[in-house]
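Can anyone check this?
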Amino acid sequence: MDKVIIIGGSGASIVIGEAINHAKNKFNLEAEFVGLLNDAEDEEIRGFPVLGKLSDVSKFVAQGCKFLFTIYKMGGQPERIELFRSLNIPEENLFTFVHPLAFVSPSVHLSPGCVVMPNASISSGTKLGHCSLVMSNTSIGHDNDIKEHCFFTANSCLGSYLSIGIGVWVGMNATLRGKQTVGNYSAIGIGSVLVKDVPENQLWLGNPAKFHKNVSEKITM
């Protein structure tokens, strides 16, 4: 059975960890969420143990543990992605999690480290890059090209033939029309309806979504 360690804190890390253990207990998934790595001083988060700091990754790699990376936010994505890369986690130690209550077409390509949560749907021909997170009730259409480290929050809805760059963040209940491009590190705000291409490093809000500001917030750990 895979022992899964999540790199992160409260929020998405715990939500995903509990979903892994739900899949283990209810659907016999051969994996278990055993704890977190976090540089804070907490000994546990929501009842789950903090097993060490990010600098301890290599120790747990040597033990054969699997990892998920969840330290994402709207803003600061380049720094957070660089943090992940600095950990040098071998690809074979990245855990790919699809909850049994999700639908993922057989022709979908999920790169290592991806998460697909309950009641999410990903249609045929779509490709997801490393460590992208698809949260509950998200719908992703067919033939999309989605790069690494993207975060699709609950109830977001994507059309088809989209080109989504590195580290894109899509808010709850946001809708993206098909045949569009969203540049690296950009973000689509909660409830927004996107009907135009978005350049790199921009936050778009509203219905229809419009440019709001550049996404340039620095990482805070």
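Reply from J.R.: I decoded it. The chain has two domains: 2-93, 97-213.
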